[in-house]
Input
Amino acid sequence: MAQQRRVQLSTQRPTSTVCVLGTELSLDVCGSAPKDAVAFHVQGTPGVKLYVVHETQSIKLPSSVSRWPLAAGAEVLLAMDALSKDVGDEKVRISYFGEAGGVPVGRAMLYLTCVDVSLDADTSRSGAVSRTLLDKATWTWGPDGHGAILLVNCDRDDPKAEMPDNRDTAIRSYADLKDMSQMVLRTRGPRTIFAGHRLLLHVDFGDADKVGVFYGGNSVALEEYKHVLGGSKLVYAVKPSRHQEESIFYVEGLAFPDVGFSGLVAFHVTLLESPEKGLLETPIFTDTVVFRVAPWIMTPNTAAPLEVFVCSVDDNEDFVAAVGAMAEKAKCPLTVCPLLENRQDRWIQDEVEFGYVQAPHKTFPVVFDSPRDRGLKDFPVKSILGPDFGYVARQALEDASSLDSFGNLEVSPPVTVRGKEYPLGRILIGSSFPRFGGRRMAKAVKDFLVAQQVQAPVELFSDWLQVGHVDEFLSFVPAPDRKGFRLLLASPSACYQLLKEKQEEGFGEAAMFQGLEEVPKPTINEILANEGLRKFNNYVQICILTGIPVLQVNMLVLGRHLGIPKPFGPLVGGQCCLEERVRALLEPLGLTCTFIDDYFSYHVLSGEVHCGTNVRRKPFAFKWWHMVP
Output
């Protein structure tokens, strides 16, 4: 339905006003009528479409009725579908008649100027701004949805800058502009009309700290781009150029969706008119466009690897070399975080998680920094944040626990659950049962993950573990059939079954941890005879859900190449039976298993293969705005 504005008329002097293309004006024919008038006649110039509303019916003029009774509710509507060439070049005249008819007892004259004012963005999600018939003031999900998209400008395009680009109010490079979404204000019609009417671009108070808007006028010089909206700036008075009909604004997101912020931001342009000198201006037209801030999206193990990260510390040269060799086989670049930057903190998987943001015009990776903040706490900002590589963090209001480390943050491949599709997978976080004293992920982190909407988190019971991370008992690997992946779950019962088989084959004296010094080396017979150990593992098995039972899941996945912690026995016939069983389960899926020694002094099996590495992966092919949360 077109915007409609009521216009007061006068029989004492002519009235002038603006009609914006696509809107309607309602003329107050009764309010301006002389006392003795009982009927009226309306006529306009060819550029004006007129309708009389009489007894709830809308009748287009001209009609067979020449005079209309001034009954209560009588109304004249007008619209214009062509721009004016000059100010006041179209007219409407209302003639009023008394009981005797004949000569009019009064006339009201209205001079009209038709202009076009439109605030547009990429509401069709094509990657370019264009005018459409879509409702710009709403935002809808799905493949047939519409609505503009905004990226949080959280990278650092200028290497000399100290903070991400969303924390300043300056344009430092043309690359910075490319991270932003365009918003175009179009003004057409006689240019002198805009000299007498103000145009205000404005944002709602509650949205102002979530966005920044820059405008450079007609210049292409970076120094001409000024911060005009956002933060404490709620309104910007636009002065349309005499020579150009379009004013291009660049919009950046400053904050991701979170508690109290759905991600939706509305911008408005309002045309103001001052009917009399000295009187306050009144709004005569407003156009609105709504953006949604793009969510942070996490990538699963099954996505193609783009870059492997590993930390070099005092005692892991062989481990780094083994990871490097595996990365080379997977044809994936390796980035080694040196000791000076990691400060003896090897657990890079616990410190950060890699994801990305995406809009129709741009996609770039974003590293999510955990509240853990140990030796690696400065690494994400100092060494990862950069041009087209963003950064986001959340801090725990309470003391951070082990469950706040991002080894406790995984995401599944695309899945369908009870008929509901999750084309970007579901986030998995470890937690405790709701009981006193149980550990849970920090509320600030969990709230952030939920607010992104596109990877609905699921909490899994992991508090039974000493460290409590979900990556200690589950992993996803690619597969050539079915859903395209397998969920691997650690399985104490599968291990007991294997050891029982080897005992029955006569290998009960085969010992664990062969080749390791100063480590107890229990035999298969001793392990199976240990009732306390068996009871504990029965409890552990209950805590783990059903899936493909394997013996090792804390692994590095680089496409079809799997890096798995070396189990060190038991040796049966010169071969590690645990390794052989894992190969038998995974290699039929087309996967290559490489067993890596990640043992060091204070862990019997450290888990460094997964927790000591991290992988940036290829974004989903699926566009997040095509889904329906």
